[in-house]
Amino acid sequence: MEKSPANTAKALKIIIILAISAALSLGAYLMSAKDVVLTVDGRDEEVRTFSGTLEELLEEKGIYIDKYTYISLPLETELEDGMNVIIITPKHYTISIGDVKNQIVSIYSNVGDILKDQKIELDENDYTYPDIDKEVAPGGEIAIFRVEEAIEEIEEVVPFQSLIRKTDEMDIGMERLVQEGENGLKKIKISKIFENGKLKEEKVIEEIVVKEAVPEIIERGTKNVMTSSRGTFRYKGVLYMIATAYDLSSDSTGKEPGDKYYGITASGTKARPGVVAVDPNVIPLGTKLYVASLDGSPDYGFCVAEDTGGAIKGNKIDLFFETPEEVAKFGRRKVKVYILENNR
After folding, report:
1. 91-145 adopts what CATH topology?
2. How far does CA 120 lie from the centroid of its chain?
3. 189 neighbors 155 (Cβ within 8 angstroms)
4. In which element (H, E) is residue 150 found?
5. Element (H, E) at 167
6. pLDDT tens, the chain, 344 aa long
7. Could you give the 3-state DSSP secondary structure of residue 34?
8. So where are the chain's domains?
9. What is the phi/psi pair of residue 115, to 5°?
10. What fold is seen in the domain 151-220?
């Protein structure tokens, strides 16, 4: 059955209307597209999208956002043409203080910004490596050095010095204490620098003398010339000794005339005036001496150490006399023994 011209016209009109409606719908759809710039970690990407919100756009682009990610706008923000969305993804770092290491996450790359982000504060003397104003690569380590100063105060003894004062008013080899020494005292302040609890440096920052040391003063004799009733002589040392006397009697020597070695000294010489017995550990045999009296009596005078005796030990000397009467008269007394300079 053939369509009438009226029906054909009607159908054509409907087709035209539908085409126009479709074109309008397409135009409206195309008009809803928005151009958005996504800046991810400093890189810009221009995106044309039909998404209605920022969250839909991120899902569309497959961009995952976690709690550490920085995003410049809320996810529910409705997109607008020309909008710029900034996204910074978190990076992993290690922060160490001494032997303690902690893994952290931050969106920043500057050392100072990372520490601020982690609420880590540095004191005046603290420092970091890398430096606070440097950049650190993702996965890198930031070492923090906690610096502390401790002031320690100690007391130190200042030893006294010994001063030798020579005098020709005293015999050579003799010494006399003129002034006793006293130690001094000083307080010392020491600065100790610790880095992360370990001693890094220490130095003296102040010394205060609390008490000055008093020197010890010793007079040392240089006199080596003596003028006596027997003449003038040089000597190299003086000993103060206990003197006794002996003769050739059996009371003194334990020997009788005719006994072996009667009248013979330990040196093999003949006992005689001017021979004295000594302790060889104090005065070697063969030493020439001058024995001076200290009680005003006449000096024994010049003599030679040639003999020994069982009772003569240490600072003792036994003077030979010819008779028991002289021995008894001498008895026991203190003497001054000069060791002569020329003992050859």
Report:
1. Ubiquitin-like (UB roll) (3.10.20)
2. 33
3. no
4. strand 147-158
5. strand 162-171
6. 555 666 677 767 777 766 665 554 444 444 579 999 999 989 999 999 999 999 999 999 999 888 889 999 999 999 999 999 999 999 999 999 999 999 999 999 999 999 999 999 999 999 999 999 999 999 999 999 999 999 999 999 999 999 999 999 999 988 999 999 999 999 999 999 999 999 999 999 999 999 999 999 999 999 999 999 888 999 999 999 999 999 999 989 889 998 989 999 999 999 999 999 999 999 999 999 999 999 999 999 999 999 999 999 999 999 999 999 999 999 999 999 999 998 75
7. strand
8. 34-88, 91-145, 151-220, 224-340
9. -65, -40
10. Resuscitation-promoting factor rpfb fold (2.20.230)
- 224-340: what CATH class? mainly beta
Cα separation of 70 and 60, whole Å?
19
Counting Cβ atoms within 10 Å, is residue 147 exposed (0-12), middle (13-18) or buried (19+)? Answer: middle
Measured between alpha carbons, how far is 233 from 227 in angstroms, rounded to an integer? 7
Q: Is the peptide bond before 130 cis (omega within 30 degrees of 0)?
A: yes
CB atoms within 10 A of CB 341: 15
Contact criterion met (CB below 8 Å) for 226 and 219: no
Closest CA to 311 of 265, 253, 259: 253
| Contact present, 245 and 335 (Cβ < 8 Å) | no
Q: How far is CA 213 from CA 206, 217, 255, in A?
A: 19, 12, 62
Place of tokens 């000083």: 186
Collapsing DSSP states into helix, strand and coil, what is residue 294?
coil
Q: At 109, phi and psi to the nearest 5?
A: -120, -10
Kindly report each contact of residues 298-301 with a partner whose C-beta sits within 8 Å and lies 24 or more positions away, as own/partner: 298/229, 299/228, 299/229, 299/230, 300/243, 300/276, 300/335, 301/228, 301/230, 301/274
Q: Decide if 324 contacts 247 (C-beta within 8 A).
A: yes
Q: Are 34-88 and 91-145 equal in CATH topology?
A: yes
List b or e across 42-53, with b for residues whose CB sees 16 or more CB atoms inside 10 angstroms.
Answer: eeeeebebebee
Identify the architecture of domain 34-88 in CATH. Answer: Roll (3.10)
